[in-house]
Amino acid sequence: MDDISIFADKAIIPTDSDLIDILGSTYDLWQQINNLVFSKYPNGKAEWNFPGKKYGWSYRIKDKRRAIIYLLPRDKYFKVALIFGEKATQEIMGSEVSEAIKNELINSKKYAEGRSISIDISDETVINDESVISDIEQLVIIKLKY
User: Fold this and answer.
1) Looking at the 3D structure of the chain, how many domains does it have?
2) CB neighbourhood size of 71 (10 A)
3) How far is CA 95 from CA 65, 89, 91, 107, 128, in A?
4) Which end of the chain is more exposed for a tag (fewer CB within 10 A), N or C?
5) Over the stretch 30-46, which tens digit does the pLDDT of each residue have?
6) pTM of the entire structure?
7) Is 20 helix (H, G, I), strand (E, B) or coil?
8) 86-93 vs 99-107: helix axis angle to the nearest 10?
9) Has residue 120 been placed in a domain?
């Protein structure tokens, strides 16, 4: 799976119509996760971000000082990315979040802003692991706590 946004042209900010075309049936999951974050943090600010050609366009929901979650569009799927500080990481390790997510988090490189995880969201992901949306909800709750 490619690690570059399907939207690579800095001059064209993606629209909902673009997302529907590119994400296909996973667009509903995108909307579900987007709505989930806003249900936990109604004051969030959603915005498209273009950090450079290497990454392309990404969508993020922020609070006043940091990104809560990133949604990264790909061809027929997307990635959910979150960054956690040490306290949040420790809480996740003691939570009911899947072992796969815990392993990715604890094995990820530690940066000044914390450890990051990325979860692929595709039709196949949800069919094989129905708890992935529940895990993302728990991760958002923990992220907002710290």
Assistant:
1) 1
2) 22
3) 25, 10, 6, 17, 21
4) N
5) 999 999 999 999 999 99
6) 0.92
7) helix
8) 150
9) yes
- Number of Cβ within 10 Å of residue 31's Cβ equals 14
Look at residue 3 and tell me if it is in a domain.
no
In a domain, 88, yes or no: yes
Alpha carbon distances (Å) from 39 to 59, 60, 80, 100: 17, 15, 17, 26
Label residue 103 exposed, middle or buried (CB < 10 Å: 0-12, 13-18, 19+): exposed
- Measured from the Cβ of residue 61, the count of other Cβ atoms closer than 10 Å reads 20
Q: Which of 26, 42, 43, 14 is nearest to 80 (CA)?
A: 26
Residue at 4 is within a domain = no
Distance between CA atoms of residues 146 and 139, nearest Å = 11
Q: For the chain, how long is the longest CA-to-CA vector?
A: 43
Contacts of 49 (CB under 8 A, 6+ apart): 57, 58, 59, 60
Please say if the pLDDT value at position 127 is more than 70.
Answer: no
- Of the candidates 60, 105, 62, the one whose C-alpha atom is nearest the C-alpha of residue 85 is 105
100 backbone dihedrals φ, ψ, rounded to 5° = -60, -45
